[in-house]
Amino acid sequence: MILRAALTVVGGRLRRANSHVETEQRRQTLLSATARRKTLLRAPRRRAIVRSRIPGAILLLLALVLAGVAFLSRLVDLGQNWPTRPWTDLVADWRYFSDPLVLLAGPDALPVWLGIATLGLLLILAARKARRRGGLPSAFANARAKPSVRDIQPPPGSELAYALRSCKAAFAGVAAFSGVSNILMLTGAMFMLQVYDRVLPSRSVPTLVAMAILAGVLFVGQAVIDLVRGRIMTRIGAELDETVGGRVFTAVSRLPLYIGQQGDGLQPQRDLDNIRTFLSSPGPSTLFDFPWLPFYLAIIWSLHPTLGITAICGAIVLVTLTAATEVFTRKPMGAAVLTGLRRNSFAEASRRNAEVLAAMGMGKRLHDHWREASREYLTQQQRVSDLVGGFGSFARAFRLMLQSAMLGMGAWLVIQGEATSGVIIAGSILAGRALAPVDLAIAHWRNFVAARQSWSRLSKVLARLPQDAQPMALPVPSSNLTVECIAIGAPGVQRIIVQGVDFSLDAGSVLGIIGSSGSGKSSLVRGLVGAWRPMAGRIKLDGAALDQWSSERLGRFIGYLPQDVELFAGTVAANIARFEPGSDPHAIVAAARAAGVHELIIGLPNGYETQIGEGGTALSAGQRQRVALARALYRDPFLVVLDEPNSNLDIEGEMALAEAILAIKARGGIVAIVAHRPNILTTVDFLLMMKGGQMHMFGTRQCVLSKLFPMPQVMPESLQPVSSSPQLPN
User: Fold this and answer.
1) pLDDT of residue 327
2) In the sheet where 686-691 sits, what is the strand order?
3) Residue pair 338/397 in contact by the 8 Å Cβ criterion
4) 3-state percent breakdown (helix, strand, coil) of the chain, nearest 5
5) Which end of the chain is more exposed for a tag (fewer CB within 10 A), N or C?
6) Is pTM, for the whole model, over 0.85?
7) pLDDT over threshold 50, residue 259
8) Residue 466: pLDDT over 80
9) What is the structure's pLDDT at 541?
10) 677-729 pLDDT, tens per residue?
11) Backbone dihedral angles phi then psi of residue 79, each to the nearest 5 degrees
């Protein structure tokens, strides 16, 4: 019995322990699944919430308007047959619409608008619940199966179109709000019509008060709708930037590798900002208001055909002015953009070389060049402003003249007994509202053209720089580097700088590259690290060409110290770790020790957390070069390429550099080093001499040096002491 009791107790504890473990495993699985679900469905859920909020807000506003009409119709007497025939003085006969209006705004319409309000509130509450709990409304459950536009890789150059296409639900909401807003724009004309044709003849103060209250409610509703429409457009611009911004940044960073340092390198980012700013401006709203132009013209025609003909003729003239604005401003706008890029390039070059300009007195001469480009830019801008301003001023004057013509034509019709006095004011207001989008389009034409040009330029840049493919991950290289008769040219220049270079290095080898200035040494090492793509031939790591690796994965196995050292704004640790997220502090310290810069770093005010400023301005030239060497050695890359790494180093720095090269060699890495000073060449195994962009000599260090500096055959008594550090070719 005692044994049985003991076994029972032990078994119970084991079951509870297993149950606890299983519960914890289920909890962790559930948490990970929830995290994955949130990551995958964040963008579709946000768009689903927007889709549910927009119709909910529209239905709620419609219910409020109908409730106000029904309430006012019971509170005061608005006239005979109201609201069975509301605003019927505007149109000769609206009998076809009387029954629906009675259903929606009549005395017995309480269940109708109450149901509409309930539906709108349910949609809004469903959106709030989805945002709070992270779920989706049941009406949009199919959004789970739709991948986000960020997960889809559209064809190069069509990213902008895909991004806007993903916001089609928001655009539909903007169109719906624009329709309601344009309908509510009739409030002013209808109010004036009722005042002149109903209130003044009857001298009814309650009717005037009721009409004023109703008009105020409608005006407030219109303001709310315009506010929501503007906020939706602002968020569409933000969504576009969020979707395409990563591709644009990649294009900005990679563009110099394809076209070189030509033009304004930040122009793609400015183009994206221009497009986003235009989407947030009143300009796009006019595009949604244009389709309502025939609607207003039809209402004016219903007042009287003569007024309709007058308004249609005015609309034709203004549309012609809009087309003329497009034709006459296209070339000047393009010329203004080109001259603006030229002016900005002068300013950027002067900023980069501020020390040279100040030291050598070149500031005034560069200023004169910039002033010439600036004057040309201002001339083109003035021409565009004059054209747009002229067309805009004429359009505004013509619209005011058309409103006056509508007043005069309405007065003539009243004299002839063909219209009432309210038609005069209503026709003028409606004509002004009908042609307002055309006037606004001309006023914002410069922004529209600028956004269109930015769209075109940005699409071309993205088409030229397709997104990097993600090839299959290859094993970590550890055997050899092979260069097969490569030819390399500078990006954007159709001229070969290096050609006919062919060699192979095994693991644990150190290659020194020497040669005179302009012989192609720096161009060669840019090709070795994959910064410049070979125009012919191939560069391989363990038999795999560099283009078979993704840039992110290839960068883990390559360390590069360029001739012109560039550090980034941030801490010393972040620069050494290549801004790797979640970097390992031990790996950072190991790279700093390998470069012999650990003692220097801990001597800084905040050690590894010291902010070095843009370009590393807080450090000296030698300190920047040694920190950049530590960055090149981070996580022990297989191939380390150093372009004149000792140009700014003292004796201590050169000793640390030599030790770092020997350490790479000892762990089985490959080093390629460009050097003008011979001290560092004591660590190399092979020498490659470049001459005229071609491989002039290649072999072991002793063999190449013996050919460069042959020892003369002399008698022992004629031997003289010579320098132990011979001068190599520059």
Assistant:
1) 80
2) 558-561, 639-643, 670-674, 510-515, 686-691, 694-700
3) no
4) 65, 10, 25
5) N
6) no
7) yes
8) no
9) 94
10) 777 888 899 999 999 899 989 999 989 888 887 755 444 444 444 443 444 44
11) 125, 175
The listed range with the strongest mean pLDDT (324-328, 382-386, 599-603, 651-655) is 599-603
Q: Are strands 686-691 and 670-674 parallel, antiparallel or unpaired?
A: unpaired
Q: Cα 324 to the chain's mean position, in Å?
A: 32
d(CA 519, CA 514): 9
DSSP string, 69-92: HHHHHHHS--STTTTTSTTTTTSS
Residue 320 gets which letter from DSSP?
A: H
- Strand-pairing partners, residue 499, are 487
pLDDT surpassing 50 at residue 47: no
Tokens 């060449």 appear where? 681
Q: Are strands 639-643 and 670-674 parallel, antiparallel or unpaired?
A: parallel
Candidates 701, 708, 559, 563; CA nearest to 631 is: 559
What's the pLDDT score for residue 263? 59
Indicate the pLDDT class of residue 37, thresholds 50, 70 and 90: very low
The DSSP secondary structure of 524-567, one letter per residue, reads HHHHHTTSS--SEEEEEETTEEGGGS-HHHHHHTEEEE-SS---
Residue type, 244: V
Angle made by CA atoms 532, 460, 489, in degrees to the nearest 5? 20
Q: How far apart are CA 185 and CA 182, in angstroms?
A: 5
Report the candidate in 502, 506, 503 with the shortest Cα–Cα distance to residue 480: 506
Q: For residue 610, report the phi and psi dihedrals to the nearest 5 degrees.
A: -70, 130
Structure tokens at 419: 């219209």
Q: Is the peptide bond before 83 cis (omega within 30 degrees of 0)?
A: yes
